[in-house]
Amino acid sequence: MKLINSVKFRTAWLIALFSARFATCRMPLIKGKSARQNLKEKGLWEEYRKKYPYNPAAKFDTSGTESMTNDADLSYYGVVSIGNPPQSFSVIFDTGSSNLWVPSVYCSSQACENHRRFNPAQSSTFKWGDQTLSIQYGTGSMTGYLGSDTVMVGGISVANQVFGLSETEASFMAYMQADGILGLAFQSIASDNVVPVFNNMINQGLVSEPLFSVYLSGDGAQGSEVVFGGTDPSHYTGSIAWIPLSSATYWQINMDSVTVNGQTVACSGGCQAIIDTGTSVIVGPTSDINNLNSWVGASTDQYGDAIVNCQNIQSMPDVTFTLNGNAFTVPASAYVSQSSSGCLTGFGQGGSTQLWILGDVFIREYYAIFNAQSQYIGLAKSV
């Protein structure tokens, strides 16, 4: 009897140990005020967008170092901690970039002064690196230093994670609620070839599967989250469509067409699309987006905003994005945003770039699974 109990105890202990080490981690996401909302409340939005044109596609400029955009609508963020004892920061979980960085006590930019700042001297496990960091933005840049420390994401503790400590930050960051960025794209586009946080989760055996999934709830609803190491079937319905990556840099896939009422209105003959949690809207080439907005009944103002009559939403057509032979339909209730100042479509001009960016407007409709090992994206209808 003692031997049996001993075996049972050891088996239970091994299962507990395995479960603790190889697990899934839920990271709740908060939908806060965007930079656009903050600037509007301060009466600064008109001046700001004239000075700094909205250019979400600047993030995917491959001419130099990894770039990110001055996206005025970013609003989903989660809280991570760095160091020992831990220092907490709110970060955008961004599948369109690959570096982790937060403000530091060495930064005197306005954006740093109104955000939490990491102090290396207060962490017993921090180590300085020997490289500087520079990430270009549409309207400026973030510069700083590299260091390494323990990063806690939900219940997962990532040891020796290299991250950026900002010294200067672009001015638009002052109006964002999040302190920094946690990139979830591939190492090949990381500045200074830094190993991304999720790669280290896999390398250190901290997740049960080499994938993470993203659920974004609708406006005003709670429950948005990133699940590292697994999925949550309660957030989607029906089967998952698995789409191979066309490039393992960003989460990039083949898009066949964009249609309205069965008519191809954009991406004729096929194009490339990126599933990006770090872009709030759906972005495409300017000519394609203008045509798409025209088809749904929107008129574009001098700033590129596509305006619709709020009373027309119920009669506006669905837009279908066909990805690798799979049709994903987005209704007007999902692609039109309403505010006190009126209604806008969530289709943004990307300038001369031929890339499409399927951002939060799309991901709110379709639960997204990012498999780093097999290099597939899974999409299923969100519930």
TrEMBL record:
Disulfide bridges in this chain: C107-C112, C267-C271, C310-C343
Protein name stated in the entry: pepsin A
Pfam families: A1_Propeptide (PF07966), Asp (PF00026)
Residue stretches making up the Peptidase A1 domain: 76-380
Any GO MF annotation of the entry: aspartic-type endopeptidase activity
Function field: Shows particularly broad specificity; although bonds involving phenylalanine and leucine are preferred, many others are also cleaved to some extent.
Record: active site: D94, D276
Record-linked PANTHER family: BETA-SITE APP-CLEAVING ENZYME, ISOFORM A-RELATED (PTHR47966), PEPSIN A-3-RELATED (PTHR47966:SF22)
Annotated keywords: Aspartyl protease, Digestion, Disulfide bond, Hydrolase, Protease, Signal
